[in-house]
Amino acid sequence: MGASFYDPRSGALRELRPAAPPRVGAALADGAGARERAVAGALSDALTFLGLEPVAGREIVVGGEEPEPGAVWIKPAPLTGPVPDAAGLCARGFLPADLDFFLRATHYRRPLVFSWEALDSARTERLRLAAVAREHAAVSQEPSARALAGYLHRFSEALRRDLDLPEAVACVRDGLRPGALSPGSRAALLHRTSPLMRIDNV
Fold it and tell me: What pTM, to 2 d.p., does this model score?
């Protein structure tokens, strides 16, 4: 099973069905900015999560001008505002992971405005999820295979539908609601999804 991505040339979703074994290449366009780099990183993580091994190639191009025919083109919407580099983040007490979480929290095709207040909100949410993940790290209870499979399916389908990371994160939040899943299932859900959500780097 592949994944579908919005094609800005045709204005429609384009399905990518790699040959077996599934090997999908992703390339970052020259001169890419912070949002393009975040989308490329999220794409690579999503391909790994979905079992579509990211390899060198130009089957998927993130950002830049229209690529050569045959390539899947992911063109993130503009990111406006004075986006800081790693040193600028550190000077304000933030981590690169905070910026990455902020950039992944909005669908890549929606315009995004950077502000320190929005970044602080993203950091708060990331740290909250990270704290929940740490609380469940030592849970030894076995997960409910059926319940866990349902949430992981929703998570995977969000990634397959044009890299909808906000919907994928919403699925995890839903699984963390009181009574939604057993402690073992919550622990397993967080263990599987934390790397892609970038909450495992505190």
Answer: 0.89
Please check whether residue 74 is in contact with residue 32, taking contact to mean a CB–CB distance below 8 angstroms: no
- How far is residue 47's CA from residue 132's CA, in Å, rounded to a whole number? 25
CA-based nearest residue to 63, from 16, 28, 98: 28
Span 106-115, pLDDT tens digits: 999 999 999 9
Cβ burial, residue 167 (10 Å; 0-12/13-18/19+): middle
Give dist(CA 175, CA 151) in Å, integer.
7
d(CA 122, CA 14): 31
pLDDT, position 60:
86
Checking DSSP bridges between strand 72-74 and strand 12-16, what pairing results, if any?
unpaired
Q: List phi, psi (to 5°) of 62.
A: -105, 120
Q: Interior CA angle at 66 toward 64 and 72, to 5°?
A: 95
> What span, in angstroms and rounded, lies between the C-alpha atoms of 192 and 188?
6
* Beta pairing partners, 53: 23
